[in-house]
Amino acid sequence: MRPERPRRPTARRVLRAAGYALCVLVALVLWPQTLGGRVAYVMVSGQSMEPTMHAHDVAMVVRRGGYEIGDVIAFRVPEGEVGEGSEVIHRIVGGSARAGYITRGDNNDYDDPWQPTERDIVGERIATLPQAGSLFARLQGPLPLAAFAAVVAVMAAVPSRSRGSISRRARVSGA
Known about the structure:
Layout: H1 11-30, E1 39-43, E2 58-62, E3 72-76, E4 87-96, E5 100-104, E6 121-129, H2 132-139, H3 142-157, H4 168-173
Antiparallel strand pairs: 1-2, 2-6, 3-4, 3-6, 4-5
């Protein structure tokens, strides 16, 4: 009898492990702040940030330790001000962390009426997903949600087969 050789990982196993690792890495990087992650997603509305960003673009923002003039930030309108709690994404054009930042949309001729401080800032823009807001809005409609629910229900109802199991057809035919 031959001694059994240790099994070496096959290329398929290595690729599968690499794929899983990549998925975990992407999930960790893109995990939203609302679920304890670092990234927040802010949908652009209106034309105030054109040509940098357009309506229905989604900006990915990350909180940092400090911000400077020229940074595009998302912030919540400070308490006690008109629009309190709304999220705005504009560029810092002046001010400071202590006194509050002066912000303005790239397409505006005037500064914003608010002066957000560090605690109001959601984060600085690190990427823009063009028109992703339109896609998300379509996916939230009744038909896409029903299709998604149907796929989940079918996946839950159909039993999975392990690779080593003999199919029903093979058992019936006597193979």
